[in-house]
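Handout, section B. The chain below has 141 residues.
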Amino acid sequence: MESYDERKDVYRGLIAAVGGGVLTALDVLMAPDVIDHNPMPGQNPGVAGFKQWASAVRSSFPDLRGTVETVLADGDLVAGHVIWRGTQHGSFLGVPPSGRRVDIRAFHVVRLSGGRIVEWWGTADLLGALEQLGARVVPPD
């Protein structure tokens, strides 16, 4: 098993790869059949699906960068708190491009095996992101 710091570095590497738009790095950091427990609608399985998600987010926020605020490792699990920052230049969750900057807090848990991420759980403050973009969230009738 990787050391505590090596496990945290895999997670940090993934955040840096997505933030830098270096999606080929995901082939090294993630198992080809990684399980994403919170996929976006229509997302393909495995690392190809994770790249699909990352590409979609980067098309909305081309300057997206992630700052790892906290990262903890226990056994084969790593937990992280990230703040994604970027400027909206593409449609995001139905909101047309606004040119506004957002800070989106996200929390992740990943399971590693053989030095690669094999499972991914993630949640982000999408309501907060929509509010920062000036979107109005209206409850259904």
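Note. DSSP finds four helices and five strands in the chain. Compare this with the example in section A.
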